[in-house]
Design brief:
alpha+beta; Aminopeptidase; single chain
């Protein structure tokens, strides 16, 4: 798919040519973040992905996992700190919502302070149940 131009970056829906060196600086404040090669593997396993790219560097991304029939879940939306507040996240989410418009349900979980952000994108508040295994937060393969 052809990249979509924006003011200072382009949106891509394919990982063609993306290397681990282009996906660094994400997972800020995570105590055990995935390494860039693991992160790229995560993106490759996604049902859909949208990247914001500036001068060859990925500055933001959103991914969706899905059965491809009825439902999808958006586990991660991140924008590099120096690009936050510039509409990159909104552009990523708007494009992802378009990519998933054929599905019945699209869900995501977020912190309470982000609820207004997602409501402004047309999403509604709901409940989310979850478990976390922080020892596996980096995405490394089990021993």
């Amino acid at each position: 798919m052809t990249p979509e131009p924006t003011a200072a970056y382009t949106l891509h829906t394919a990982l063609d040519g993306i290397t681990p060196g282009q996906v660094q600086g994400f997972f800020v404040d995570w105590p055990n973040p995935p390494a860039p090669d693991t992160f790229l593997r995560l993106l490759r396993g996604s049902y859909r992905v949208v990247l914001a790219v500036h001068d060859g560097q990925v500055i933001g991304f959103v991914q969706a996992v899905s059965d491809g029939v009825l439902t999808a879940y958006i586990p991660l939306l991140e924008v590099l700190p120096e690009w936050q507040g510039r509409g990159v996240g909104r552009a990523l989410m708007t494009r992802m919502q378009d990519e998933l418009r054929h599905l019945y349900a699209v869900d995501l979980g977020c912190e309470d302070h982000l609820v207004p952000y997602y409501e402004a994108l047309g999403m509604r508040r709901g409940n989310l149940m979850f478990t976390r295994n922080y020892a596996r937060q980096d995405g490394s393969l089990p021993d």
